[in-house]
Amino acid sequence: MSATRLLSPVPGTVLPLTDVPDPVFAQAMVGPGVAIEPDRTGRQDVVAPCAGTIGALHPHAFAVETIDGRAVLVHVGIDTVTLAGLGFDVHVERGQRVHAGERVLTWSPVDVAAAGLPTVCPVVALQGAPGSLEQIAAEGDHVTAGQVLLEWTAG
């Protein structure tokens, strides 16, 4: 398999997954990755981290399945499923092909924070092998949406 570059879905600060206030992500139960603490701005787009087909799709989370069988999960905030889609606009359909950096969702981290929920956004290589990701953007770096975060090289 060739390397897959994973882009930041939102603008913000790079954090380790261990900082995510949810054990499923913090303990890398679904796979390795990083998290982005998004800029606290009004409405912002959430973009596809890589090219592929939209697999799972919810107002608060989505997965992109790549042509070589990998899947990347983007979860927009934590416990945001409790908002039942309120404040989230979905711009794609399940099964739709997307390009890396293409708009998938729009949301407001300000509104999510006002609802008392964490705004951090995990980006996870689903079922990825430990050590299969090379971190390109360092923890603490500020990234823009569409900037390279990780390179998924194996597994």
From TrEMBL:
An example Gene Ontology CC term for this record: cytoplasm
Gene3D superfamilies with a match to the protein in the record: Glucose Permease (Domain IIA)
GO process terms (BP): phosphoenolpyruvate-dependent sugar phosphotransferase system
PANTHER family: PTS SYSTEM GLUCOSE-SPECIFIC EIIA COMPONENT
Taxonomy of the source species: Bacteria, Bacillati, Actinomycetota, Actinomycetes, Micrococcales
Pfam (any one): PTS_EIIA_1
SUPFAM superfamilies: Duplicated hybrid motif
Keywords for this protein: Kinase, Phosphotransferase system, Sugar transport, Transferase, Transport
Domain of life: Bacteria
Intracellular or extracellular location(s): Cytoplasm
Name this protein carries in UniProt: PTS system, glucose subfamily, IIA subunit
UniProt xrefs under InterPro entries: Dup_hybrid_motif, PTS_EIIA_1_perm, PTS_EIIA_component
Organism of this sequence: Cellulomonas flavigena (strain ATCC 482 / DSM 20109 / BCRC 11376 / JCM 18109 / NBRC 3775 / NCIMB 8073 / NRS 134)
MF GO annotations: kinase activity
Residue ranges constituting the PTS EIIA type-1 domain according to the UniProt record: 22-127
